[in-house]
Design a protein that fits this description.
The complex is a heterodimer.
Chain A: H1 7-19, H2 21-56, E1 63-68, E2 86-87, H3 88-97, E3 101-116, E4 119-128, H4 132-135, E5 139-143, H5 148-153, E6 157-161, H6 162-168, E7 179-182, E8 185-194, E9 204-208, H7 209-215, E10 221-222, E11 224-229, H8 235-249, E12 260-264, H9 265-308, H10 310-318, H11 323-360, H12 375-402, H13 405-409
Parallel strand pairs in A: 4-9, 6-8
Antiparallel strand pairs in A: 1-11, 1-12, 2-10, 3-4, 3-7, 3-11, 5-8, 6-9, 7-8
Chain B: E1 2-13, E2 16-28, E3 33-37, H1 44-51, E4 59-64, E5 67-68, H2 74-84, E6 85-88, H3 100-111, H4 115-128, H5 144-156, E7 162-166, H6 174-189, E8 193-198, H7 201-205, E9 209-214, E10 217-223
Parallel strand pairs in B: 3-8, 3-9, 6-7, 7-8
Antiparallel strand pairs in B: 1-2, 1-4, 4-5, 9-10
Helix pairs in contact in B: 3-4, 3-5, 4-5, 5-6
């Protein structure tokens, strides 16, 4: 391996490369393009993935939503088409029966006008427990979220969305402690939150669950519930079990598919992550394929060069170059070209990722978040590149030594 | 130095084979200046290729510097060429993208001589052929005669036992032909064995021994008395 560190070896390679500037540039572009695509695509798909993660970030992803509808099958003397209502009782039973439930949040929702002085607007009103903050993290701008005390006291307090605040309050006005009217009742504003990228409630005012049930006369009826399972629980199985329990409580045919509606956040996110995985696979596939094509281009061009340089190789052999020395030079040329091309491609790709980040990665609603590629992945791709470069260089190297010096030197 | 006994060589041409050398016997001693004369097709180039280890013979014996040449592989051939032989070709065969100095030092590179040493020796030999000032020029900046002198310097730089010249003046005009031949004569006078292949009488005339080849057989082998006044017995 001593020859690798021998400046003469590199002198020879430099000479060979300098002589064939055009083919050197073309060859380098082939591989450069391949690794550039790989780096850029991987970075971009990472950025997209990060973006999705950001969007779902506020959510406990192993969550199920359940709501009630009408039955579609008659059961135990009940006609079909019976209207079902979920109740706080259901919530209590589920909480008791399922140890794998981490949080369960009953939701009661309506909408109403919210008024402050002369300003007014129609918004969603939601009766909630403090646990909602755990299922879907609330990004608070002012004050605090509901707490257990508010529930216990059926306090007339509310937490409003930023948009409501902007409509009812002056700019930079501190809303905490101010009063607003919801319906005809006065509530004290205790906090302002900001919606994330995904919101099920729109611009809503949250009031204590107990207050809501009383004010809107709901007794124990609720609109729907949000359930979050412990880590590692099979959420799909739990969703099925929950529905069966609910059907049992409400005397619904277990085969009834319409009675309760449910949505599984894990499934929805799974679709997106599946798409991301697919895209990442595609990225690797396209990137590696392009790389291989680039390396083949190097091999091809070296092969042509070997033909062009038949005479030169013949001369070298006539004056004492052994076949190994000739082969070594051709292979080293190949490796050198792929290495340089690879490095340029990585630098170029990194630069484009930097630009992507600069133009698409900032602002309130970025398309790509932190588009990066792991260094080990780059090193791995680089290693593959060098190995491929060596292997592909062996073909023209072998061809170079097939030429007999006597044939190479024959005049005309 | 070179001892050839009953050498045969034929080339396959389709199903037939062309018998090019039909039993050559040739002994060349150290310090001789021999020319092989013959028209094209006489087998002189084939003979040079075999002598130069660029081709293998079919039958007969060939001893180079006392060593029998038989079943050479490419690597051994390359090492022997590097050690014992220097080549001068009709079309110079310099590497176009290397300077005169780099061309001359290339055989030393393959011999494993260090860079500094190489440059020094190559420059010495360029000086010897009168081209020291042209060391950094590329071949296409040199005239035909100069190119051939660079090629001769390259042939000499490894201090071989024999210099093999294949029509060294074939691409040159008469003035440069003379200067190249003078150079070869000088080399020979210093004791180097020189082996020239030519079809020009004027060139052969300047050598000390003329071997004439026709249809693969040696038809005459004469000492050139004119060029050998001292040595004749």
């Amino acid at each position: 391996m001593k020859f690798i560190f021998d400046s003469d070896t590199w002198q020879e390679i430099y000479g060979g490369i300098r002589k064939n500037k055009t083919r050197t540039v073309i060859t380098i572009i082939g591989v450069l393009w391949g690794i550039f695509l790989l780096v850029t695509l991987l970075g971009a798909s990472r950025g997209l993935e990060n973006n999705f993660k950001n969007i779902f970030g506020d959510f406990a992803t192993n969550s199920v939503f359940v709501w009630s509808q009408r039955t579609e099958l008659p059961f135990k003397g009940f006609q079909k088409g019976r209207r079902l209502r979920l109740t706080t009782n259901d919530v209590e039973i589920l909480k008791r029966e399922y140890k794998e439930i981490k949080f369960i949040a009953p939701r009661s929702q309506s909408n109403s006008a919210i008024t402050r002085g002369f300003k007014t607007g129609n918004f969603n009103i939601s009766g909630d427990l403090p646990v909602l903050d755990k299922v879907q993290k609330k990004d608070l701008v002012y004050g605090r979220f509901l707490n257990e005390n508010d529930i216990k006291l059926k306090a007339k307090v509310c937490v409003i969305e930023l948009e409501i605040y902007e409509q009812l309050f002056d700019k930079n006005e501190d809303p905490v402690g101010e009063m607003v009217n919801i319906g005809n009742i006065s509530y004290k504003v205790i906090g302002v939150y900001k919606n994330g990228n995904i919101s099920f409630d729109g611009s809503a005012a949250y009031i204590p669950f107990t207050t809501f049930q009383q004010v809107f006369n709901r007794a124990n009826r609720i609109s729907w519930m949000m359930i979050t399972a412990n880590e590692g629980v099979d959420i799909l199985q739990m969703e099925k079990d929950l529905l069966l329990t609910l059907k049992n409580i409400h005397k619904v045919d277990p085969e009834d598919k319409k009675a309760f509606g449910s949505a599984n956040l894990a499934v929805e996110i799974g679709k997106v992550t599946g798409f991301l995985t697919g895209m990442q696979f595609l990225t690797w596939f396209v990137g590696i394929a392009t790389l291989i094509a680039g390396v083949f281009a190097i091999g091809n061009i070296l092969l042509i060069t070997v033909k062009e340089r038949t005479k030169e190789i013949g001369i070298r052999r006539a004056i004492g170059a052994t076949p190994i020395e000739i082969r070594r030079q051709v292979v080293l040329e190949s490796v050198f070209l792929t290495t340089v091309a690879g490095m340029l491609g990585i630098i170029f790709g990194g630069f484009v990722l930097f630009l992507l980040d600069y133009f698409l990665g900032s602002g309130p609603d970025p398309t790509l978040v932190n588009p990066t590629v792991n260094i080990p992945i780059i090193l791995f791709a680089f290693l593959i590149l060098i190995v491929l470069g060596t292997l592909i260089g062996l073909i023209p190297a072998y061809m170079a030594t097939l030429v007999k010096p006597i044939d190479a030197l024959r005049d005309e | 130095m070179i001892r050839i006994n009953n050498l045969h060589k034929s080339y396959p041409i389709g199903k037939d084979s062309l018998h090019v050398l039909k039993g050559i016997d040739l002994h060349i001693k150290e310090g001789e200046f021999v020319s092989i004369m013959g028209s094209s097709g006489s087998g002189k180039s084939t003979l040079l290729n075999i002598v130069g280890l660029l081709d293998e013979h079919d039958e007969g014996d060939y001893f180079l510097n006392g060593q029998e040449i038989k079943n050479l592989n490419e690597k051994k051939g390359a090492v022997l060429r590097n050690k014992f032989l220097g080549f001068v070709f009709q079309s110079f065969n310099l590497i176009s993208y290397k300077t005169a100095l780099e061309n001359v030092s290339l055989p030393l590179y393959y011999k494993g001589v260090s860079r500094k040493e190489r440059q020094k020796i190559a420059l010495e030999y360029l000086d010897k052929v009168g081209l020291k000032d042209w060391a950094s020029h590329l071949p296409n900046e040199l005239s035909g005669g100069q190119k051939q002198r660079v090629a001769i310097a390259r042939a000499l730089v490894t201090q071989p036992k024999v210099v093999l010249a294949d029509e060294p003046t074939g691409a040159l005009d008469s003035t440069t032909t003379d200067s190249v031949m003078d150079l070869l004569k000088d080399i020979n006078n210093e004791g180097m064995t020189v082996f020239v292949i030519t079809h020009e009488e004027e060139v052969a005339d300047q050598t000390k021994r003329i071997v004439r080849l026709k249809d693969g057989i040696i038809i005459s082998d004469t000492i050139n008395v004119q060029r050998n006044p001292v040595k004749t017995v």
